[in-house]
Amino acid sequence: MASPRLRAVAFLGALLAACSGAATPARDTADVARARALLREARSDLHRARLEHDAAAGQIASIKIAEARALSPDDFAARELECVALASRHRFSEALESARETLRRAPSSAIGHGILVDALVELGKYEEAVAAAQEMVDLRPSPASLGRAAYLRSLHGEREGAIELMEASIDATGDPAERAWGFSQLALEQLAGGLVSDARRSCERALAHLPNYRPAELALARIQAGSGDAAGAEVVLRAILARSDDADAHAALAELLDATGRREEARAQFDAAERLERAELAAGGGSEPHHLVDVLLARGDRVDEALSLARSEASRRRDVFTCGRLALALAAAGRGEEAARAASDALRTGSDDPSLLAEAGEAAAAAGDARTAVDRLRRALARRAALSPITARKAEERLAKLERA
Question: What is the pTM of this model?
């Protein structure tokens, strides 16, 4: 799966901490007090939504923010928090407009600047995102601004700089939950760069700050699976599922079981992941279809639906991971020329993400460009531990076939 869920929006927690909760005087003191209480609750809900990937918590937060704004219409903190809620629910176009309006009213708003960067990144507007991130860092270097700068460097293939900035962002916060989040993010950067031992240590440091922290456990399971320790990865994933019915853990376990030849068990786990992803989409909690697309492509039996969903998402946003997913779906459907164009979009920033390279390799193969396909697949497999088990297996099979030809 090319785009881990925790990658979606950078450092919302640091931004939430920056919300002062200050309100301008309203008509009724009781209304103001109630609005402030609602905003405190909403911050807590959004923090949980981010750290635990709890879509329902994001929905609840949005309801509370709307009620607070109705009670105290001039409360600027509520407007700021609304930006965060929209981004948390992956309503990035709306979040972008909300952030711009926030900055029109308060040009130095850390919340406005942060969500502006996040929305631009997630919509694939990278030149604007880089400029916005630089402005944010210039205003005040902080965990929030450094984290965003790190992610943008990563997207542009500057892995060493991304790791340095991520380490700086972790050092700049003392909050255990934020440090756990940061180390989990750092682990993904290190893993994508082939620094497997460093990535494992970062996961362990995340779990030392926050035991049973799911993003760190998922990253650790990926590292173990990619390093040949399938049994260890399975233990970690089943421990997650013993605590909660989690779509990402089901999907990761399905891929692991499939790769080790346990196809019937894998099918049951794919079914569970698909059920949960469809339920979240139906609930409208901010989930986007790409997680379902990942599941459908991994199991390989409903390519047409995966392609339809991937096309729909790409019509709304053009970030590199959406383009890469579309390229893979098009390749699976035998649409080689279209797949090659989507792959070109996916690699347009110079990213060297192994999953993007593997998807782009499949697209090149579908388009009949064997030389490009071989180059991309070799580069992806050079950092095999960063790939999901099924992605790695398919890349190896495709490369072997191309090299025999």
Answer: 0.89
